[in-house]
Amino acid sequence: MMSGIEGKVIAITGASSGIGEATALLLAERGAKVVLAARRSDRIEALAARITEAGGEAVPVVTDVKRRADLSRLVATARERYGKLDVLVSNAGISPISALDDLRVEDWEAMIDVNIKGVLYGIAEALPVFREQGFGHFVHTLSTAGLKIVPQMAVYAGTKNAVRAISEGLRQEAGESLRVTTVSPGFTETELAHSITDPDARSQIQDSMAKIAMPPNAIARAIAYAIEQPSGVDVGEIVVRPTAQS
């Protein structure tokens, strides 16, 4: 019996590591055709080869989500290669957190460009395709940082809550044929801390990750759960935390 994932064409941004990589591997294992998007060509090419060698289907597309043209190429590649796009997983994100007093304005702007505009560019390119097809599913990776606001994470949390609001508005506008899911991970073993420019904040986050972080496959399974539901079932929001996270 086919799963609700087998045969689906799924594009994933931020696919070169962490949650994106784990999601690509899990979905390909369950029969999806995955379109891998990230800036690091060597990483997504190696991942595509790994999936193909295991009997799956994958195609890498070098993508910087700050550029709308790159998202356009991503969606076009999925359609040209496989004839459709079932799901867009907007997972790319950065977290150069710091205290507001530090005035790291360039970091604020980078988070807005990647975490918010990158998602909006994905919507802009995929939504017309989904409307034309009569089906489609947006999956947006958020964060528990947007649910519990703490010092140093104000701007990062703000970007995630902006996408939360955009996703809910999209869900309400989507109608009966499209689905919208947000997934909010807690501490997860990813490379997200590498984008933190404040050394003290980076060290603090890395210490927390070392102590309690979940494997990225935990989030991949949550994403797969939302995707595999019948077409008339919309899993709106999933929150996944380590049990040790307050």
TrEMBL record:
Signal peptide: none annotated. Pfam families: adh_short. The keyword Oxidoreductase applies. PROSITE patterns: ADH_SHORT. Keywords: Oxidoreductase. InterPro entries: NAD(P)-bd_dom_sf, Sc_DH/Rdtase_CS, SDR_fam. Transmembrane segments: none annotated. PANTHER family: DEHYDROGENASE/REDUCTASE SDR FAMILY MEMBER 11, DEHYDROGENASE_REDUCTASE SDR FAMILY MEMBER 11. Belongs to the short-chain dehydrogenases/reductases (SDR) family. This is SDR family oxidoreductase. It comes from Streptomyces yatensis. The lineage of its organism: Bacteria, Bacillati, Actinomycetota, Actinomycetes, Kitasatosporales.
